[in-house]
Fold this sequence. Notes:
By secondary structure, the chain is an alpha+beta fold. It contains four helices and twelve strands, in the order E-E-E-E-E-H-E-H-H-E-E-E-E-E-E-H. Strands 7-12-8-9-10-11 form a six-stranded antiparallel β-sheet. Helix 2 (89-103) packs across helix 4. The longest helix is centred in the middle third of the chain and has 15 residues, at 89-103. The radius of gyration is 16 Å and the shape is globular.
Amino acid sequence: MPLQNRVNPYGEICFSPHRGHLMGNRGCLHNPQQTIIKNYQLKRWLICVLHYHGVRRTVMSKGRYTELFFWDEATAFSAGHRPCAECQRARYLQFKHFWQQANHLTGISTKDLDNFLHQERMSEQPIFVNIQQLPDGVFVEHESKPYLIFNKTLFEWSFNGYLSQKILPHSENLRLLTPPSIVKTIEAGFTPNIAFTNDTKPLKIIEDID
């Protein structure tokens, strides 16, 4: 039986047999029986690569952090995670560069960035936006399901990839799932990795910024 460690665009931790392309970390969320007992332990929600320096882990080991899995980077961003500064150093620096620039918060620490994202994740006030104004790589809710915006098209999300496609409706306000500060980061020039196939090889890490 699959473990409860797959994350959807809402940030919910679910059961699914499909692993996806990336791993994540919110601290230790499981008990010795490998049951999820909390949604997060830390405000530092990370996106990690599947393979790093040959390290091998036993998933959901007692007392260790809970290995979470995402279909792709766009899904992880929608859930409120950001790139890990260790296993994705270049990607993290690129994200932080654009995030600070887009949100007019230059010079802040990583802890401050994590605290900011945590406030957005914990907000219970839904945000509705005109989808024509959103950049590629952002998630919205349509007909009670998560959809990715890409190339003027809505792609229905699933744990095993993207399903049906719909032309982006004109002038329709939908609930935004991706945190607003990350939406601004994407608008500023940061491009999320999107996996339109089920090839589960680790994603290429984008080179460091100048």
